[in-house]
Amino acid sequence: MLHSVNMLAATDMVGFDEIISLVVALVLGGAIGFERELGGKPAGLRTNIIICLGACAFTIISQHLAQGNPDAATRIVAGIVTGVGFLGAGALIQAGSGVHGMTTAASIWLVTSIGVACGVQMYVTATTVTGLALAVLFGLLPLTRRIRHKNQRAGDVPQRRTPDDQNPPPAPPSGP
Q1: For 69, which DSSP code?
Q2: What angle do CA 23, 108, 106 make, to 5 degrees?
Q3: Cβ(23)–Cβ(29) below 8 Å
Q4: How many CA atoms are closer than 13 Å to the CA of 121, on its beta-carbon side?
Q5: Which of 19, 36, 41, 81 lies 20 to 30 Å from 13, alpha-carbon distance?
Q6: Could you tell me where the DSSP H helices lie in the chain?
Q7: Does any domain span residue 50?
Q8: Contact predicate 5/107, CB 8 Å
Q9: Could you list the residue range(s) of the whole structural domain that residue 71 is in?
Q10: Over the stretch 114-135, which tens digit does the pLDDT of each residue have?
Q11: Is 83 inside a domain boundary?
């Protein structure tokens, strides 16, 4: 069954609650993005804010379009998760025998969930998830580096290769 939507009426329904949701999504997405930016990651501050805002906006829109049909709202949220999977896949880079960008891809996925939570005004959940994610991203980095270094010294794990390792600088020209 198709539902017609009066777009003028839909725009009239956007109010203060939706604006608060968008602002909270901006701040929380920015918090994750700030950590990624500090680490020099390609999906940094602006990218994480835009992803979080987009997920929030799509969630708000889905609630307005799906009034009286809760299945429609959940289908739209499922579409958000599927779509952001393509963004995450784009963040993955295969280099040699390893894959890089897993944390960036996971962060993109996580920021999407924060945006959806903001869109349905679940601010405690969104803030808690953001805090826990920041604790993992900031707090576990030194431990991860220490474990990786120990494993590399023991020869248990091959060294991580960077894209620069694939294309070493050319040898200096030999002089006469």
Answers
A1: -
A2: 135
A3: no
A4: 8
A5: 81
A6: 7-12, 16-38, 45-65, 70-91, 102-119, 123-139, 141-154, 163-166
A7: yes
A8: no
A9: 14-157
A10: 999 999 999 999 999 999 999 9
A11: yes
Tell me if 170 is assigned to some domain.
no
Look at residues 28, 56, 27, 32 and name the one whose alpha carbon lies nearest to residue 43: 32
pTM: 0.75
Q: Distance between CA atoms of 114 and 53, rounded to whole angstroms?
A: 9
Rg (CA), the chain: 21
How many domains does the chain fold into? 1
Tokens of 17: 């609650």
pLDDT tier at 1, thresholds 50, 70, 90? very low
Instruction: Compute CA distances 150 → 131, 143, 144, whole Å.
Output: 29, 11, 10
Locus of tokens 């010294």: 153
Does 140 reside within a domain?
yes
For residues 77 and 62, is the Cβ–Cβ distance under 8 A?
yes
CA dist 17 and 23 (Å) reads: 10
Does residue 5 contact residue 63 with C-beta atoms inside 8 Å? no
Q: How far apart are CA 68 and CA 99, in angstroms?
A: 45
DSSP state, residue 3: -
35 three-class SS: helix
